[in-house]
Amino acid sequence: MSYQVLARKWRPRSFAEMAGQEHVLQALINALDNDRLHHAYLFTGTRGVGKTTIGRILSKCLNCETGISSVPCGECSSCTEIAEGRFIDLIEVDAASRTGVDDMRDLLDNVQYAPSRGRFKIYLIDEVHMLSKSSFAALLKTLEEPPAHVKFLFATTDPQKLPITVLSRCLQFNLKNLSPERITQHLQFVLGEEAVPFEEAALWSLARAADGSMRDALSLTDQAIGHGGGQINEADVSSMLGTIERSYVVDICTALTGGTGTDVLAAISRMAEQAPDYDQALSDVLSIWHQVAILQTVPEALDKGVGNYSELLNLAAVASKEDVQLFYQICLLGRKDLHLAPDLKSGFEMVMLRALAFRPDANPPVREASSAPAPQEAESQVKKPEAAAPEAQPPVAELAAAEPPESQPQQSSAAVEMDSPPWEVAAIDKAQVPEQIQEPRAQKISLQDFTPEKWIEIRKQLIIGASLGDCQPLPV
């Protein structure tokens, strides 16, 4: 017998053998056990998550000779023929190759006839979103009110392209991507049954490369077995996938926690000898910091079978939570700008050096130059009020002793206190006048001019000043 690939050999034959998708299986099992069956089901999700497989298992449950049940016997002729793909009442259609309205009419012409052997006539249409608008229009009426012996099972990877009139006539089930943990567990079971030796770290690499698809994981496992000569190890899987060993990335993260730029660049140089994909390497760095953050916060949430688990424990013990969050954020932002660098290696190095530069230091060194500007600043703050302060008015004695020139501005008379009533009145009135109107006059009166001989002249000057607004006129 010819070799059968793992993806076909280990295709589930019952709901119990399915890996994941419990939310979909539970709904279908309850509907089958309670005999609450709909006439149209729509399964959506990415490639390789079990859409067609669930449709075939559901066909077994509906046409099993032992009766409608969520657990088909798997031994009757109907179950056997469905598993082998030759059951006459299960019509599988590839909508990508039969998109026209004529093809849909040929299918619908036989809907009215009863099934030949089974209990139901089942139409399993894969990639249903590829049908044309005319085909959907021809299908609508039959899909809304089909005969009692007809069931429609649709599978698609792009439900947004389906008309809303089709979606409203179906029960829709969205299948999720499988987690790397679930894929790794299933690969361990399959390889154990196949008696193929493997390394668990290699299976984790295959699970991450599968990107949520079980079929892709099994296909990669087939390729890894051939590449490794009948066994699976991490080095061969990394070489096959074009990735680097996880130990190189762990060394870079360890150097980051040490805080030494020389160690970081040395670790990057060792990784560069493997000609890595630096974008994927940066993604691996993010994955490591994510796992370290889980170990620091919720240690029991991380599977102990994950690759380099002991090194992750050491990183979680050495690095602080703040450093882990900082490294993750900088690497995440750096991955977006990695393609803008002159070359990917220098861009990767700058991301690591940036993470190292922004890492907070517990005991930052004190720079001598940092304290130098302080005295200058203090001196400027002290001198600034002195420069801004107005000049102090000289005392009355100095005013009386010094003879100001004719062009010198008149001194403030608010500080001059005289015994004579006229001068006291003039000084008070001058102090009450706002500063903006206290402009110097062209002719000034000296203190020595205040003599009895010049009293009449002084009085005239005071009257003239009062008319200009400088003071009030004296009573005659």
What does this molecule look like?
This protein has 476 residues and is mainly alpha-helical. The chain has 4 domains: 6-174, 3-Layer(aba) Sandwich (Rossmann fold), CATH 3.40.50; 180-241, Helicase, Ruva Protein, domain 3; 246-357, Zinc Finger, Delta Prime, domain 3 (Up-down Bundle); 417-476, no CATH class. Helices cover 51% and strands 6% of the residues. It has 21 helices and 5 strands. It has helices at residues 6-9, 22-33, 51-63, 77-84, 101-109, 133-144, 164-167, 180-194, 200-210, 214-227, 234-241, 246-258, 261-272, 278-297, 309-318, 321-336, 344-357, 373-388, 396-401, 421-432, 455-467; strands spanning 40-44, 90-94, 121-126, 150-156, 171-174. A 5-stranded parallel β-sheet has the order 2-3-4-1-5, with helices on one face. Helix 9 (200-210) packs parallel to helix 11 (234-241), helix 13 (261-272) packs antiparallel against helix 17 and helix 14 packs across helix 15. The longest helix has 20 residues, at 278-297. Residues 362-366, 368-428 and 433-440 have low confidence and may be disordered.
